[in-house]
Amino acid sequence: MNTANPTAHAFDQAMHLQPLGDDRFSGHTSEAYANMVGPFGGATAAVLLNAVLQHPQRIGEPVSLTVNFAAALQPGPFEIEARPLRSNRSTQHWLLLQYQNSELVSSGTAFTAIRRPSWSEQELACPAVAPADSLPALDARGMLRWISQYDLRFVCGGFDPHSQQPLDNSLTRLWVRDEPPRPLDFLSLAAIGDCFFPRIFTRRQRFVPAGTVSLTHHFHVDSERLAQVGSAHLLGQAQANRGHNNYMDQSAHFWAADGELLLSSSQTVYFKE
């Protein structure tokens, strides 16, 4: 049974975990983040990361997260094992395993660290686009449940399955934040990092069976900076490099409104056409 606070934000309810001891936690899927098959992948990635964040032995904050989606997570309870594999004074490597009905449904790794002041530089510039408040929010009525949990405002590369007119590239730029607004943290950033529709949808402008197989996030910020961003929109950009023989990649980036790069992400997506 999901014992999350029913008055909490839907995202926080979806992230709720109950410690079981021995590196294990129990959770429950959320209907609010339902996708075509099982939950929205970003929510699954975030709840796996939450097991690390909730672990009493954690050192530092997330630097990277990789999740491999091995099987469809069905509605209902699940368990997560978050085990620290190696630790030193400032870094920690984690193994993540998610089970449902005693079967493995996803696996992953995470790397956490205590960040210290150092030389810093951002080579990837934020694209110059229209501000979020000048663009209409996507009307999510009739769409998958998870889409309505986000305020999505497309700059380019939207998805209109009624047009049936393929695009000549898969580039998408959009503004995104939780709906209703929620202060940004590592968990919500991990989920937002998977907010783009599959690149095959954008390129072909029609639905095809598709799903993420593997996802990797690189976090470029600390919790203090995320708190400064608050509930403001993030600018996201995603594009595929190649689709071939049932698989397509995606490279994505997310910036704060002031142009600071917060997250880089890549994933491999299976599609059937």
From TrEMBL:
Classification via InterPro entries: ACOT8-like_C, Acyl-CoA_hotdog, HotDog_dom_sf, Sec_Metab_Biosynth-Assoc, TesB_ACOT8-like_N
Domain of life according to the entry: Bacteria
Signal peptide (from-to): none
Every Acyl-CoA thioesterase-like C-terminal domain range: 136-270
Sequence ranges assigned to domain Acyl-CoA thioesterase-like N-terminal HotDog in this UniProt record: 35-110
UniProt name for this protein: Thioesterase-like superfamily protein
